[in-house]
Specification:
four-stranded antiparallel β-sheet; three-stranded antiparallel β-sheet
Length: about 550
């Protein structure tokens, strides 16, 4: 009766299996005198438990992957839409329209300002998307640390229960409840990573990783992991991010299922691939705009041109063609000018020295290796055109008229001097024909050719569609993740339901058993009472 009562008390405990009292008839002098409870146990199908352990790992991985892909899909919604809202697609579309208008009125300061704003908005959207991806990677890294702690705690529980079970088994006592607790701890480990295990003759359970590393043997072998303080686009595994180790051996790539496997895949493969596509998109936008911008000049030219590419004075130089450099007044008219054949220069330092010798111009490499060309008079400006270095023109090689700077989506931004003064948007044209004399117009507002070329190049690059393709790819991955997670959950639920139907507590049956036992005790009590009365009557008759 105590067993049945305990079963009912644990009916809601998913890790509890219904127990039964094993009975044996008591024989005295060849006569049955009652029954003894010789043990309490439950006969659980070990193969079914093993199937549940494997399905638990599969389901945990599937659900974790789905959660992160859903969050990724939500965060990338700012990249593409149906044409409405604050998205990368709308910012790029707006920029194309602005450049079309600027092509017809290249002198418009208002349109130059709008073009810079559109570029800033597009860059900000890419940075935000990159930040979201890296936040998810950071979350995954933190979650791995939590998962490792969970596994280690469960491993110690299994080890402690192993000792209790071995002692109880040696003493001939029931181990059923202890085995339920150990199976629950085993399920906890299986949720985090795929494992194998067996039970030895003493009743102790040995647990291994899927690749054969001992986790619980004669002692516990803990997982080790160091969470990263910060995760960014430059964080990689292997490299700056920690792997999961056992006894100093990295097992990260051998973990095939469970929560940790999904988190590691997300952190090290899935999300970095998305970051790579964001970086490609950012680089395409940057290079498309900059390639054309470096063919032009601000009108009027700025007082200083600072490159965005870094060089050392000793860097070799393989150049050709003729570089034209002009120092102009506020109206873009020549103050001084010089045409420099580039073929004879061996190093960057040699060229910089000759540029610095041009009247009215100072040239140098700053602390970061950026080429700086500055008109000596604050009232004057500087412009360059022509020359070829490594397949690019001189301005493009040094990034003197770059519009966008940054290595990828994480740091893409409008160049600082242009962001501060949008009139420096380089859609003006510097004269490259004939010779220039003092007072000639070196830089005009242009015909609008460069602005139109930018708009056309953006359309040809299909940048807005590329953003939509990335969102679509993540959406497709989300759909697949939902399907797989649903299948994994169904598989696990089916196994658990089968287990529960075989070994779970049926409250109705246990209640009926208690009632049956109560009736049996009552009937036995009545028999004993009748026998006692008869015995007393017999004694009275003898007296």
């Amino acid at each position: 009766m105590a067993v049945a009562t305990n079963n009912i008390a644990n009916a809601d405990n998913v890790n509890y299996t219904a127990k039964s009292a094993n009975q044996a008839t008591r024989i005295n002098g060849g006569v049955g005198t009652g029954v003894d409870v010789i043990g309490i146990g439950s006969n659980v199908d070990a193969n079914l438990v093993r199937s549940i352990v494997g399905a638990t790992s599969t389901n945990a991985a599937a659900q974790t992957f789905l959660d992160y892909i859903q969050a990724l899909s939500n965060s990338l919604g700012s990249l593409s839409s149906d044409g409405a809202g604050d998205t990368l697609a709308t910012h790029l579309s707006s920029l194309e329209s602005t450049l079309d208008e600027l092509a017809t009125t290249p002198e418009s300061a208002t349109l130059k300002g709008q073009a810079v704003t559109d570029l800033e908005d597009a860059a900000a959207t890419l940075r935000a998307s990159s930040d979201e991806v890296q936040t998810l990677r950071g979350n995954a890294d933190d979650a791995i640390a939590d998962a490792v702690d969970t596994v280690n705690d469960a491993l110690h529980q299994i080890d402690a229960l192993n000792e209790s079970i071995a002692r109880a088994q040696a003493a001939g006592k029931s181990t059923a409840d202890l085995e339920d607790q150990r199976n629950a701890a085993l399920q906890t480990v299986a949720e985090q990573l795929d494992i194998s295990y067996f039970t030895d003759s003493t009743g102790a359970m040995k647990v291994y990783t899927a690749s054969g590393q001992v986790l619980v043997g004669a002692e516990v072998h803990e997982l080790s992991f160091t969470a990263a303080g910060t995760v960014n686009a430059g964080s990689t595994y292997p490299g700056t991010l920690s792997g999961i180790t056992v006894n100093g051996q990295d097992i990260t790539k051998s973990i095939g299922s469970g929560n940790i496997a999904a988190l590691a895949t997300l952190r090290d493969t899935t999300l970095p691939e998305v970051q790579g596509e964001l970086d490609d998109l950012a680089a395409s936008l940057r290079d498309t705009i900059n390639a054309i911008a470096n063919q032009g000049s601000a009108a009027p030219p700025p007082n200083t041109l600072t490159g965005s590419e870094s060089f050392a004075a000793t860097d070799s130089l393989s150049a050709s063609g003729t570089l034209r450099v002009a120092v102009t007044d506020a109206d873009g008219k020549v103050v001084s000018t010089q045409d420099i054949p580039l073929a004879g220069y061996a190093t960057v330092g040699d060229l910089v020295a000759d540029l610095d010798a041009i009247p009215g111009l100072s040239a140098s490499l700053d602390a970061d290796g950026h080429l700086v060309l500055a008109a000596d008079s604050a009232a004057n400006g500087v412009a360059v055109a022509g020359g070829t270095i490594g397949g690019e023109n001189f301005s493009g090689t040094f990034g003197l008229n770059d519009v966008l700077v940054g290595s990828g989506a994480s740091d893409l931004t409008v160049k600082a001097d242009l962001a501060a003064n949008s009139t420096r948007f380089p859609v003006g044209a510097m004269s490259t024909s004939g010779t220039l004399a003092a007072g000639d117009v070196a830089v005009s507002t242009g015909s609008g050719t460069l602005a139109q070329s930018m708009a056309d190049a953006m359309r040809k690059a299909d940048l807005a569609d590329a953003a939509g393709d990335l969102v679509g790819k993540v959406g497709s991955a989300l759909s697949s993740a939902k399907t797989y997670a649903g299948s994994a959950e169904t598989g696990l639920t089916t196994l658990i339901d089968s287990f529960s139907s075989k070994y779970g507590v049926n409250v109705d049956e246990e209640t009926a058993l208690i009632s049956q036992l109560e009736n049996s005790y009552s009937a036995s009590a009545q028999v004993i009472s009748a026998v006692k009365a008869m015995f007393e009557d017999l004694l009275q008759a003898v007296r």
